[in-house]
Amino acid sequence: MFYNIQTDSRRSASRGSSGAQISIMPNVVIKKGNRCQEQYEFLNKYKAAQCLPEVGLPVGCSPEDNVYVMNRLIEVETKNALELTHMLYSALNEDLWKTRTGNDDYVEYNETAHIAKVLPLLKIGVEFSKDPERSRAQALEVHNICSPQDIDHAVTHGDPTFDNLMMLHGLPVLIDPLVATPAVPSDIAVDVGKILTSLGGFEQVRYNKIYKNRRDAKHILKNAVINDYGEKAWIRSLYWCGIHMYRAVPYMKSPRVKKGLVEIANESFKEALRF
Q1: Is the pLDDT assigned to residue 154 strictly greater than 60?
Q2: Treating both helix axes as pointing N-terminal to C-terminal, what angle do 81-94 and 214-229 enclose, rounded to 10 degrees?
Q3: Is residue 195 exposed (0-12), middle (13-18) or buried (19+ Cβ within 10 Å)?
Q4: DSSP annotation string for 196-248
Q5: The model scores a pTM over 0.85
Q6: CA 56 – CA 258 distance, rounded (Å)
Q7: For 38-75, b where at least 16 C-beta lie within 10 A, e where not — what string?
Q8: Which residues contact residue 153 at a Cβ distance below 8 angstroms, ignoring those fewer than 6 apart?
Q9: In this predicted structure, what is the pLDDT of residue 15?
């Protein structure tokens, strides 16, 4: 689909850690930035999933221009983590994770690629921990016990946080996907781990957004994941929560925020070791 759009947008802003530029029009939103080509191709490939936004290209543009248009969505009003977690998990488990095209839907896990990605992140992140050596050892210990290569394959969103949940016609829509890679594969635990970052306080640490009932929501999510996919999937989810937080640290400017994200990561690793 192509959109004939005037360039004088009503409102412009940057969003998230990628620095993508968002231009808000009366009925659509234009997004331009480094990851927009892969996001557009992912959203277009899996357009059958109702929980993903409809996307198109501005007239005269191609995916290589790193720009796309999507329908304008409504922000979620509730600050109740129970409701948000239910919407996220239901949208993933009942819709996106079950979507198939039959054309290279899954990215397999590669241990070498994963370790090559994780070790530099740990080196940066642990410096904001009270005990850097213990934090690094703890992360690697969880990696060894959780077997991230034991994947529950699915088409994953990659970034289903509270902040990326919006609404359209009363239904949840997940924006800004992070496409799977051999280092961060097509495993449902990758997505559950991102929900856990929100339940751990990611938005509170970064944006000072307060959500109630986070503990109760986490308990319900835990039971749902174990019931649907087993205990190993939950342990992997805790591992990925920690890894996601370390992945976010280099994008943060504030030492306070970096420290807060590392604390969320370390708590998630500790929980995995206690499980």
Answers
A1: yes
A2: 20
A3: buried
A4: HHHHHTHHHHHH----B-HHHHHHHHHHHHHHHH-HHHHHHHHHHHHHHHHHH
A5: yes
A6: 35
A7: ebbebbbbbeebebbbebbbbeebeeeebbbbbeebee
A8: 106, 186, 187
A9: 53
